[in-house]
Write a structure and sequence with these properties.
- The structure is a single chain.
- With 164 residues, the chain is mostly beta strands.
- The protein has one domain (11-163).
- The protein is built from 1 helix and 14 strands, in the order E-E-E-H-E-E-E-E-E-E-E-E-E-E-E.
- It has one helix at residues 37-49, and strands spanning 8-19, 25-32, 34-35, 58-62, 82-83, 91-92, 96-97, 101-103, 109-112, 117-119, 121-125, 134-139, 145-147, 152-163.
- Strands 1, 2, 7, 8, 9 and 14 form a 6-stranded antiparallel beta sheet that branches.
- Strand 1 (8-19) and strand 2 form a beta hairpin.
- The relative contact order is 0.30.
- The mean pLDDT is 94.
Length: 164
């Protein structure tokens, strides 16, 4: 059997922007993601095997010491815990498609904190609560960041595909 001579690259990055109660930017971080095995399997299953498409995706936040592994799922992820001290559930990823990418830059996922905490990273998953498909995750490149109640994080995610 001959090995693949060219391929497809799938990946993206998260942009975290934290604002204080007055709208001042406190910190910003761009974090390249890992598309986890479950996310890759979902893509292959939908494109080639006729699996049901997950039509709505959501952004979530990870707490301190966030570490993503290829085998992570939303039900099992030893390297991180989900951060939930913000208003509501995970935030919907309302994406717009460009030539070879998808992004929610026009409508960032907004997390308004109700208590202090520590942000370590972010995830993209298909449910607003519970566990099903985890597509991707990324740890902050600048290390863990503290947030206080009344802080807001706007989270943008860009997902791209390219021929290698």
């Amino acid at each position: 059997m001959e090995l693949m001579r060219s391929g497809v690259q799938l990946g993206g990055f998260f942009v975290f922007e934290c604002f204080d109660a007055f709208g001042n930017l406190k910190w910003r971080d761009e974090a390249p993601n890992m598309v986890v095995a479950a996310g890759l399997a979902h893509i292959l299953d939908v494109v080639f095997s006729g699996a049901t498409v997950a039509t709505t995706w959501h952004c979530g936040l990870g707490a301190s010491s966030f570490t993503v592994a290829s085998g992570d799922t939303m039900a099992s992820h030893a390297g991180w815990t989900e951060l939930t001290n913000y208003t509501g559930n995970r935030k919907e990823w309302v994406e717009v498609r460009t030539a070879a990418s998808l992004t929610n830059a026009a409508s960032a996922a907004t997390f308004v904190f109700t208590t202090a905490g520590t942000v370590g990273g972010g995830v993209l998953t298909n449910l607003s609560t519970g566990s099903d498909i985890m597509m991707a995750g990324a740890a902050l490149t600048g290390g863990d960041r503290a947030v206080v109640d009344t802080d807001t994080i706007n989270l943008t995610y860009v997902f791209s595909a390219a021929d290698s």
